[in-house]
Protein 1
Amino acid sequence: MMVIERFYFSAGGHIKTIFLKKTLDKSIKIEGFALKMMTFFKEAFQVNRKSYPERVRSALFHAIKKTAANLDACVKVPGKDFSRKRKLSLQTMLLMLIGMGGGSLSKELYDWFGYTPSTATASAFVQQRNKIRSKAVEMIFNEFVALAMPTMTFRGYRLFAVDGSDLRLPSDPTNDFSLIRNAEGQKQYNLAHLNAMFDLMSKAYVDVTMQGKKGMNEHKALISMIDRSNILGKVIVLMDRGYESFNNIAHLQEKKWNFIIRAKESYGMISNLQLPNSEEFDVDTTLTLTRRQTKETLALLSAYPERYRWIQPHTTFDYIAPKDSAMYDLRFRVVRFRISGGCYETVYTNLDSETFPIGTIKELYRLRSGIETSFRELIAFFKIKAHIHMNETTLNSQKAKHSERRVGSRSEEHPMTLP
């Protein structure tokens, strides 16, 4: 008897499917679900692993087991949900939610329980699933990444690229989070926006935030990923020009993380800065921010426009409260370099100029494209899943219609009559 469990994970920047196989001795007759699961976990949680896929699998199961042990943090009603011993425990539910394939719920349940009489019902699965907080999946993700992904660096620094991308989801008119309603007569569709922090050296996502396409805000997503990260040590975050913001730089500065942000060339922070009239340059800059418009601050804003900036009341800046007289300094370099032919790029960075001269900054910024490559692979994976989902829905619909036709024809041949 062979049982195949399916799990999906990202390794080396590629989406892979790992089939975990267990061959049981045919001479031993195994009855019931308990013995099967006991054998499964015994193999899954072995510590001594040799190959990389096995180490990743072990890390995944360890992350699920550790998360399930923190019951109150994973359920909606602590002290009540999953308090009784049932077939579908929290650990089993988390394993199934991550490992289930693309079949119908009933088929996946039969596959999981080995087509035994003890197979849980679809109704029971849905009831148990509704008790789990989304926080549980986040906890598994964080624990899994910390355990499974090797820490690789660039001159001792971890390189994180941050970017966002839209993900087309399978059609679901009941999902208000992602549903896009078009004008009357046009087809509705589901679209989400993925904000990700990607380790360019280890080729793995270290954090993600999902937003509905409606009302998405990449700046808020970035700040949430920065503030909640427990990653210590030397870090360089690379971002495109869409992330240029006083508030974003301030959060990175307070986190003591380094950054390289592509600058907007003709407006934004670069305006009023005193920069050399040359093709390439490297200038240290300090911007002092204020929310007040007193005589003193107005005089400074007028006399030194390259240094002082007034933040408008509607502009988000978390380190100066409205009407607060405090000032806040942002310190960074403005670096301009040639990328190809007659094309030039300007970036902001707080990296040391001696350790990271223009040539190294250029090399680092070029590495940022790694997150775009990972997005293309991820989007391709979602398209495949959506296509499979659509095909299975169509196939099931056709099967249902075929069954109805067969039942209808047999009813005409052998009409049923009440006694």
Protein 2
Amino acid sequence: MSRVIETVTDTLRYAGALLLVGLVTACGSEPEAAMPMEEDGMDMEMGEMDHSQHMMGASTDRQMVHLTPEQERALGVRYVTVQRRHLERTIRTVGRVVASESRIADVTPKVDGFVETLWVNTTGEAVRAGQPLLTLYSPDLLAAQEELVIARRLVERVGDESAEAAQNAQAMLESARRRLRYWDITEEQIRQLEEGGEVTKALTLVSPVDGIVLEKSVNEGQRVMPGTMLYRIADLSEVWVEGEVFERDLALIEDGAEAHIEVNAFPGQHFMGQVDFMYPVMDVTSRTNRVRVAMPNAAGALKPGMFATMFFDVMLSMDEVAVPLEAVIHTGERNLVFIHEDDMLMPREVVLGPQAGDWVQILSGLSAGEEIVGAANFLVDAESRLGTTGGMMPGMQHGAMEPTAPDTAAAGGHVHD
């Protein structure tokens, strides 16, 4: 019972000491009245002292701490061993499914004319390459058909009578064929014209690719001009998923990196793809960069316009020194850990690398196998600060980085065991 009372008493004393630290810090942060300097030499001396203190770093604002086993248990101090490990991280962001720009084709006429019949007249309809889309009447097409039929008849009439005449007739025939090809008339239609020997009022325009009609901007009877977009057709057997990645994560994602996608339409199902492109321009407002993932979509499950969640599993480091994130004290100017050595806790500055979950890589300052404070280190840090300011926790012992004579007056006459 007496030990319980003693532990509670130590804890209350420790809490009071923490409050004392706060008061000392607050009082110490208030500006003091500036005393006039009569000589320039005094200014230089003070500047040199400040610079030397800055260069000493952690040695001037924290001291070593000694804890007994009972104190360690009361404070919840736990030690961990620095180790080497692989650090992996998953970058998560949101994206949107879009049609692959490289698989989009626009159907546009190259001649002036009028739409006679629409064979594909709804948006969203699936079409195959070579499938008829519409028939077009055009005076220019009609004249080109007549030229082809005449050239064909001339070739048959000349025969072998004159080599020069036969050559000229064949050249006219090839010219007529080429003209129709340039206007997107298929080889099959050209062959039928030559064999039939008769022109038709309207010729058929066909789909250049397999895909889905994304846009339709033509109606029967409409007059169309060269370059007018009639259909926009996209091959959705492969789609893109585009998402925004924060600036700090850009270096972790490379072209060809694997990504998996989730969409609300298929909960629990993962779609795998690869990073296809990193856009070269960053959004200055959101500080993000667009990333494009190419996704196979043979079944058509992914539809343009869907929202998606994107995951990128990246390897941050291989067999590197790492510690739990909670073992690091962030002071605002540097990062510290407390080394456990010879029953003493010594502050040491470290340089942090990338973070992966609850672990962080140590670039310098620690070696594998060293033992550090892994829990309750903020309490140890408070005790280390008290040792620097001259205050001492009940039952605690400090070891200065450089031995100095104890100042019993500053400690209020109290001396540690």
